[in-house]
Design brief:
Low-confidence stretches: none
Oligomer: single chain
Mean pLDDT: 87
Distance between the termini: 49 Å
Number of strands: 7
Strand content: over 45%
Structural class: mainly beta
Helix content: under 10%
Radius of gyration: 18 Å
Strand order of the largest sheet: 1-4-5-6-7
């Protein structure tokens, strides 16, 4: 089995309303773990930890993707995909335009 680890601990994502000039930023650790079986098939692709956390001054935490999200794949001995599962734990608010825009107007 082979495993790759991709880390960018200082990444930030910024959402900006170009009309008002207001913006919100979030740290995005960008840790990605990918595992492969002996045939080279990806068996796991996961993003654990902090994906995004939007905090509005005077309001507090308004959106968060914290925890783990990922995908698990199962293949037969010929490399044919048999099944896949989504893995998710933690806070998963997701980013929606409506949620962000109310703080950027």
């Amino acid at each position: 089995m082979k495993q790759t680890l991709f880390v960018q601990p200082t990444t930030r994502t910024t959402f900006t309303n170009l009309d008002t000039g207001k913006s919100l930023s979030t740290p995005a650790v960008n840790l990605t773990i990918t595992k492969y079986d002996a045939l080279g098939n990806m068996t796991l692709h996961t993003l654990p930890g902090l994906v995004r956390r939007i905090v509005v001054p005077g309001v507090g935490l308004v959106l968060a993707d914290i925890g783990q999200v990922g995908f698990r794949f199962r293949f037969d001995s010929n490399g044919k995909l048999l099944s896949s599962d989504t893995l998710s734990s933690g806070i998963r608010d997701g980013i929606t335009v409506d949620k962000l825009c109310q703080y950027l107007d």
